[in-house]
């Protein structure tokens, strides 16, 4: 562990790592979908290493195939911590309000704590806006994604009267691709005509913006953003929370909150991987930030 982070963590509590080992035998971090499982695991390995040193127990990473795998892992006590999207947090809260506690939120380079659902298409498709998508194939990511489903399914019909998200009513077909990376690859390959993903919408389009699924896809060499065009952008969405299971010992929750809170200052490269791009780190957050998303999900999906 880098010295600065080790010192910061040591200052948060006088408890020894042995005390943690008596209460928990391992710590399990769930990683929400958005890119392939191995890339997700690689991005989080540094955080796992820091966690093992901070808590004195083995840390395991879990990268389920879909968002629901992380949600159910948290609800069932099989995952201890995760960075959830706002809708995935709402789903968890609606099923069990006592399951998890939101503790931290990612901070963008400009100090804001929001992001956007971004609609995009290939530049050579001739699609420049949602007006050009009539009769074409539109891709969502995961049904538990905020930017990949919940928000666009609410805002796109508001954007253009008469648009519904049912196949054949405006779009020729509406598909779930399985996740953000899958949507980006499907658009890039011409398998679908347009889709939605997430980004902070800051920085340069050709870089995939500063952070988000587009930036991760650029970093992975999956897409050249000069071949893509933005066709829609949602209103600002509150960034999803880092959550911890409420059933964890209080000292473990305190230690992990401090670790992630200090990650950017101690190890910017590790924070880049965990936060899906450029960031100023994390700051405290509470459930109140997500009340509107909880209500939106309840109205749209029911749970």
TrEMBL record:
Gene source species: Planktotalea frisia
Classification via Pfam families: Phosphonate-bd
Coiled-coil ranges per UniProt: none
GO biological process: organic phosphonate transport; transmembrane transport
InterPro entries for this protein: PhnD, Phosphnate-bd
GO CC annotation terms, alphabetical: ATP-binding cassette (ABC) transporter complex
Name of this chain's protein: Phosphate-import protein PhnD
Record-stated family: Belongs to the phosphate/phosphite/phosphonate binding protein family.
Keyword field: Signal
Gene3D superfamilies for this protein: Periplasmic binding protein-like II
Signal peptide stretch: 1-21
